[in-house]
Known about the structure:
Blueprint: E1 5-6, E2 9-10, H1 11-28, H2 30-39, E3 63-67, E4 70-73, E5 78-81, H3 96-106, H4 119-130, E6 134-138, H5 141-156, E7 160-164, E8 177-180, E9 183-186, E10 201-204, H6 209-216, E11 221-226, H7 242-252, E12 256-260, H8 271-275, E13 282-285, E14 296-300, H9 302-314, H10 330-343, H11 346-369, E15 375-379, E16 382-386, H12 395-401, H13 404-415, E17 419-420, E18 427-429, H14 436-453
Helix pairs in contact: 1-13, 3-10, 4-10, 5-9, 6-7, 11-14
Amino acid sequence: MAQAIRHGVDWARAQALAARERAAFVARNPASQALAGQAAEHLLFGVPMHWMKDWSTPFALTVAEASGARFSDADGHDYIDFCLGDTGAMFGHAPAPVAQAIACQATRGYTAMLPSPDAAPVAAELARRFGLPFWQFALSASDANRFVLRWLRAATGRDKILVFNGCYHGTVDDVFVDLVDGLPVQRDSLLGQVYALTEHTVVVEFNDLAALEAALAGGDVACVLAEPVMTNIGMVLPQPGYWAAAQQILRRHGTLLVIDETHTISSGPGGYAREHGMAPDALVLGKPIAGGVPCAVYGFSEEVARRVERAKRAAPAGHSGVGTTLSANMFAMAAMRANLEQVMTEQAYAHMFALAAQLADGLRAAIARHGLPWCVTRVGARTEFQFGATAPRNGSEAGAMLDGELEQIIHLYLLNRGLLITPFHNMLLVCPQTGAEDVARLLAVLDACLGELA
């Protein structure tokens, strides 16, 4: 028997709404449907990356053009974008200074396996912003995380790493370990993995200091890899005092702290760690750092950088397993310099913070108006609503709030009215080009959606 009420929603009405919205999407997007049919002839799963099939739509929506806080599709419809490439375009699509830097660099070479004049200024700006003096580059945060784990295992002589239940650090195999009934279990969704990740990866719940202490007591964990705020399973904020106490535990056991700021760069120009007085040993940042051009960075404290250098010098000559041919290419470095110097400014963040506060307040008001047992969390320019009455304290609680079917109904309703939010959860971003009228439009349409559901 179908569930009558689900997360405060009349489920029969929700299913009827979903059918109506799917039909409306098909009717309004014939060009995207035709392009999806053509793509299916030669693209695996019919899309360039398989997860592009996992949106709320009956077929993939084809984007024709994107600029600032907006994009248009193949059928000529315009959208206000609150997804922004799931953070990749957090500072807007095609920011003008980055576009100009790319155009200039396009006639001067793309890659040469040697430094460009942008390399030193970029590293200096990263050191100023994030408080870590030494930096390296990669093409994605996934690669940067892999490289950091490899460096720190070599530098510490320890094999294990620790992650938090429900974490997200890209496609790094080592982190696909969850807690199930209190036991570490490799995620079933990880395709093609043939060795036991649990031999080298320890997993505990976020915000559980006792579990962290116990996990590190053996002295065999090289580093903790963590987002300072969990984001991908639904946002989970650290409890007051958590990171201060956690850092003391790490230092006591000689375990290094790696902070992945790829999503939490929404917190400010120096990320969440700098804004909240944390002192990580290493930091990773990908996605938006070059304005959407593929690029990522990772930095080390001076003490850790020296240990890394010693490990490299002590190793035999040959391929280290760190870095790729296109890492730190001239094209990405030019884009990153322009983005850091001219786009990721204090003024841009102030604008985004004000709009995100307006958005979060409006979401709370709409949820309360319709009597829904949902909550709202904000981290700087990043806002999320979750299907639970109180904010989750760890990955298990956040995971229990997820409802993919309900998310997709809401997302499709918004999309059919020219509004895009992030798939797979209910995350919304604002960028420097987002306006107060855009936020008001989103809130009005979402309010109408909730009125049809509740």
